[in-house]
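Protein Record: Sequence and Backbone Structure Tokens
======================================================
Scope: a single protein chain, as residues and as a discrete description of its fold.
Tokens: labelled as protein backbone structure tokens, with as many entries as the chain has residues.
Position: the record begins directly beneath this header, with no further notes in between.
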Amino acid sequence: MRTVLVIDDNPAVGTALDLLFGLREIRTLHAASPDEGLAVLAREQVDLVVQDMNFAADTTSGEEGVALFRAMRAKYHDLPIVLLTAWTHLETAVELVKAGAADYLGKPWDDNKLVATVENLLELSEATREVARFRDERRRRRKALEDKYDLRGLVFAAAATERVVELACQVARADIPVLITGPNGAGKERIAAIVQANSQAKTGPFVTVNCGALPSELIEAELFGADAGAYTGASNKAREGRFEIADGGTLFLDEIGNLPLAGQAKLLRVLESGEFERLGSSRTRKVKVRVVSATNADLPAMIRDGRFREDLYYRLNVIELRLPPLAERVDDILPLAEYFLDGAARLDEGARAALVAHAWPGNVRELKNAIQRAALLCADGVITARDLGLAPARTNGARISADAEPDRDMIEGALRNARGVISQAASELGLSRQALYRRMEKMGIANEA
């Protein structure tokens, strides 16, 4: 059951809040002094604290409340704390909110506003704990993956990436073709390297061919080799193709959708029998090569258009690994950014928020370029949102990106919608409570709701 601890020297406050919260199935504990409150926290599971700011008779300085808040914050970092103020200067409460207090309300309080604040914070607290549990479990799973498989130093934290990596490791030892799909710049070659590193051919060569980077008339020669003078402009010496070079290892065919139909037929034969001929040669050669291919193209659509062989598609697609775009792997963004920085600079809070808010149409490649550029442009080794040069992101409603400034109308509208509940208004604007307080103070906006 959700539990709130009320620390107030007035028994009537504890009784009133017990009745108020009890109607919402919230258990209420009461402590009459800071020491008693800390003792309750030490022995009970508490989800939220509502604390007074003054305890000794004839005291209005708020110093006792400040000391209690700091003692709780030092030991219980994530515990939401709501301040109740009667005589204390509001500036003191605002300073504590900036230091991490969840919110503050004046005495006598508005029941609806207090209940809304407490309900919101309890829901947020539970969600935060659930996210923490989920991340701990994900870290354990990733550690198990790293202990069992060679991940080639891949940097990731998103569950979507973890699923792809886990499946790649599972199918790596099976001697079957693997097709990796996903947008350009998402990291498909890194997944192919993981397949190779955990396969039975891990000691063999890992050979990469970008089928989209070669003219169509040269792809066959690149893959299968050519005898001397096999085509116009060919060397007067025979050359090995990539299949021969990859014999006993893995051949990674990137942008497989660019392979011309003639090359597709020869590739199908190699996959089925391991046999092929060089261009201009009648001698049949045989190799043992694990083929991993990748594409950002819609191969089924290409099949319907007659540009890709259906039988080759099903031969390549025994196992498909779909690597999502970076926008669907948000938890990967900051770890990748830190990896690309390699200690050369530090991301400030605004830069981190801007990175997470950006859509990254160019995926990991775009992120790498943005980080490298920002590291060159930043001052004093600290990267700000401005250094990144990303387009401001706006989502539904009034939510804004962390580096954009809400105007007075947006802030006042959010406060009205939230009936003065700061945490709710901050959430609507996409800001932290501390950030909202700073903007209200700067603009001279009073919370009159």
